[in-house]
Amino acid sequence: MMRNWTLTRYIGQRFLVGIIATLAICSLLIFMIDILELLRVAGKRGSVPVSSLVVIALMRLPAYTEFLFGFAVLVGSIGALLNLNRKSELAVMRAGGMSVWQFLWPGMLVAFLIGLGGMLVFNPLAAAGRANAEKKFARAFGQDANLLKAQGGGSWLRQDGQDGESVIGAAAASNRGLTLTGVMVFAYDPKGHFTERIDAASADLREGYWQLQNAWVSRLGQEPEKFDSYLVSTYLTPDRVQDALGTAFSVSFWDLPGLIEVTEKAKLSAEKLKVQYELLWTRPLLCVAMVLLAATVSLRSFRSGGIQTMVATGMAGGFGFFLISEISRQFGVAGLTPAWAAVWLPVVLLLVICSTVLLHQEDG
Q1: How is 202-262 classified by DSSP, letter by letter?
Q2: Ranges of H-type helices in 246-306
Q3: DSSP output for 67-112
Q4: What is the DSSP letter of 330?
Q5: Cβ-contact 19, 110 below 8 angstroms
Q6: Distance (Å, whole) CA 242 – CA 131
Q7: Which residues have a Cβ under 8 Å from the Cβ of 347 and sit 6 or more positions away?
Q8: Count of structural domains, the chain
Q9: Would residue 161 count as lying in a domain?
Q10: pLDDT tens digits, residue range 189-233?
Q11: Are residues 19 and 112 in the same domain?
Q12: Are strands 225-233 and 179-188 parallel, antiparallel or unpaired?
């Protein structure tokens, strides 16, 4: 029992060191590239202290490295298995009667825990760091992130509220989407019938409503009326509108369920958020699948040759999987397939294929 535990811990440590080393190298490269990009932007838009740029890059780093969890587990597992194989330790384990599943399960356990930690802990930290980095970037360069970016000269938002649905158009947006200027609103009653058109100089988002200033309200069969202040109900809230209109990757795992509910209430598309939520749930299983993929190309004896070809095949298989996963994710974001199917099916398929290959390699 003690020997088994010692061997399990040793194998697990090999996998852990390989995965962490891969993540560290990738993080260093990303940090250097991000710093160079920030220096380029700073050179064009004004003098910003290097210390501020370093802080911004460090805050953004977790959000960038989060995408590399699967890749790091794949490369780190290949490295760990090749190292064990090169030292003939795998041959000794096999000679002692251990099957491939017995010396792989410590690596799968390590990968599963890394994926679980990435989902529950690392993702919220990355989301918080990204949000703070965006604020520091805006202060440093004197820019406000405009989440209602105009395309073709205007921005449009469809929403819902206690009084019914409405469509808001704006010539420009500022204060991270909370303040609109050049506003036009088409309001509908709860049954979907048009009720009024509102033209206003500006609008500010409050708790449960948009507050419009200098508004002209036009109703069917009535003369337009002028209001200094006019309210339009909405289920969007100031603390949610930024995420609902922004990127799903900047939202914490713990905040996604509530944000999905709010987004659907506001009659916005929540597919992107649903896909991101499912992606986070699959992360532990994805990491396990990467260990199995690494095993399919790393268990051949060095004496038989062809190790380089097998490793290249494994890396190509990994990139192919990530490409297929991204295509499937885009189908989910577009609403062509359910979010769970777009995310889970590629991972389950990879698990089945890798398990089948390993069983064939072991048992013929």
Answers
A1: EEEEETTEEEEEEEEEEETTS--EEEEEEEEE-S--HHHHHHHHS-GGGS-TTTHHHHHHH
A2: 256-265, 271-296
A3: GGHHHHHHHHHHHHHHHHHHTTHHHHHHHTT--HHHHHHHHHHHHH
A4: H
A5: yes
A6: 10
A7: 282, 285, 286, 289, 325
A8: 2
A9: yes
A10: 888 888 999 999 999 888 888 999 999 999 988 889 999 999 998
A11: yes
A12: unpaired
* Largest Cα span, the chain: 92
Q: From CA 293, how far away is CA 290, in angstroms rounded? A: 5
The answer to whether residues 224 and 276 belong to one domain is: no
Give the pLDDT of residue 168.
83
Name, in order, each residue with C-beta under 8 angstroms of 4's C-beta and a sequence gap of 6 or more.
none
Q: How far apart are CA 199 and CA 185, in angstroms?
A: 6
User: Angle formed by the axes of helices 256-265 and 238-245, to 10°?
Assistant: 90
What domain range includes position 240?
A: 155-245
DSSP conformation class of 198:
E
Contact between 114 and 69 (Cβ < 8 Å): yes
Amino acid at 327: I
Is residue 122 domain-shared with residue 166, that is, in the same domain? no
- Cα–Cα distances (Å) from 113 to 46, 48, 70, 109, in that order, read 44, 40, 13, 6
Q: Do 8 and 129 belong to one domain?
A: yes
Domain co-membership, 139 together with 162? no
258 within a domain of the structure (yes/no): no
Tell me the β-bridge partners of 173: 180
Same domain for 128 and 8?
A: yes
Q: 177 and 276 share a domain? A: no
pLDDT value for 150 = 36
Does residue 76 contact residue 20 with C-beta atoms inside 8 Å?
Answer: yes
Q: Are 40 and 136 within one domain? A: yes
Gap between the Cα atoms of 298 and 314, Å rounded: 9
Q: Which residues contact 201 (CB under 8 A, 6 or more apart)?
A: 181, 182, 183, 213, 214, 215
Tell whether 8 is covered by a domain: yes
The list of the chain residues with pLDDT below 50 reads 1-2, 143-154, 243-245
Task: Determine the pLDDT at residue 152.
Answer: 38
Q: Kindly give, in sequence order, each residue whose CB lies less than 8 Å from that of residue 6, ignoring residues fewer than 6 positions away.
A: none
pLDDT at position 145 is: 38
Buried b (16+ CB within 10 A) or exposed e, 124-141: bebbebbbebbebbeebb
